[in-house]
Amino acid sequence: MRLSRFRKSFPLDGQTLAVEHEAFVESSRSTLKVDGEVVAEDGVEKGQPDPLRNHLLTWARPDGRVLTVEIGPANTWSYGCHARLDGETVFETHPGKALGYGPKMQAYLKWAEANNTPEMKARNEAALKRNWPSLATDIVLGLGFFFVAREFGLVTAAVGGAAAGLILWVAQKLTKIDLLGGLAMFGIVMALLSAAFALIFQDDRIIQHRGTIMGIVGAIPFLIDGLTGGQRLAARLARYFVFDVDARRLGIGMGILGFASAGMNAAAVALLSQDMWLIFTTFLDIPIALVLFFVMLAWVRKGPEARAY
After folding, report:
1. Binning pLDDT at 50, 70 and 90, where does residue 196 land?
2. Can you give the pLDDT at residue 115?
3. For the CA atoms of the chain, what is the radius of gyration?
């Protein structure tokens, strides 16, 4: 699949020179044409050293002079080229600007290569095998809450969610299959608190703020855990990740994320109808939370105490 294409033409000594660069998922290639005829090519394939290097097209002209065309990123969004004839510039798309990938992209490449080893692949496969039952459970419970709430009301959905959590916890004990993840007890306690909240305040509008209150209640333990070292809740959560994380930062980040989610729910309750709120809280707030989560992970991975769990 082609990701991008860069094409540029320029005249030189009465001839038309055309440069084309194409980037694909696992490769890139460049060509130099003179009056429609290909005179130079360059490219990088997957697995070759220095895959982010600039392409260099070299053409030995009939008059003995050598034309070199360098192609590389000019900025975040586009490529550029710099043509030199015997070392002297004859054309450039971005005058005075050095072409090439910046330090952040180079750092990402080093990280990607470090995580492409057989050991890391085995670690990723083991993590997926360990975590997929709990991930599937989360999805099923979320969809179940949505449909039960739509058909039977929020109180029934909250109580049913807590009952389902207890049943799954018993099933997990009997089958030894991790259905609720490393935070099983924490999740069950939260579900029971949610059900109690729904039964005490049997008013749909008040129950809608369950997410606000539960978000705050859930954020506080993570935040306290993070501020005290992150070796309780955060360490349990860290085992889901196939890369090194700083548990202290993870606890703090999850606490902040919990407060942010609570704020989103409070705003949705105030601004949306009940049906629209139900759609938002089941489907639409997840993408927003994921964006915040990945931003938080970028900070967590750079922590001074990052390690595997």
Report:
1. confident
2. 62
3. 28
Per-residue pLDDT tens over the stretch 84-104: 999 999 999 999 888 988 777
The pLDDT tens digits of the residues spanning 148-174 come to 766 676 677 777 777 887 777 777 777
Give the pairing type, strands 88-92 and 79-85: antiparallel
Q: Name which of 303, 293, 302, 243 is nearest 112 in CA terms.
A: 243
The three-state DSSP-derived secondary structure of the chain is: CEEEEEEEEEEECCEEEEEEEEEECCEEEEEEEECCEEEEEEEEECCCCCCCCCEEEEEECCCCCEEEEEEEECCCCCEEEEEEECCEEEEECCCCCCCCCCHHHHHHHHHHHHCCCHHHHHHHHHHHHHHHHHHHHHHHHHHHHHHHHHHHCHHHHHHHHHHHHHHHHHHHHHHCCCCCCCCHHHHHHHHHHHHHHHHHCCCHHHHCCHHHHHHHHHHHHHHHHHHCCCCCHHHHHHCCCCCCECHHHHHHHHHHHHHHHHHHHHHHHHHCCHHHHHHHHHHHHHHHHHHHHHHHHHHHHCCCCCECC
Whole-prediction pTM value? 0.50
Calpha distance 127→308 (Å, rounded): 12
CA dihedral 291, 294, 299, 303 (to 10 degrees): 160
Task: List 265's β-bridge partners, or say none.
Answer: none
To 5 degrees, how large is the angle CA 19–CA 25–CA 28?
25
Separation of alpha carbons 145 and 135, rounded Å = 16
Report whether pLDDT(128) > 90: no
- The structure tokens listed for 48 are 């070759």
Query: In this structure, which amino acid lies at residue 89?
Result: T
**What pLDDT shows up at residue 114?**
63
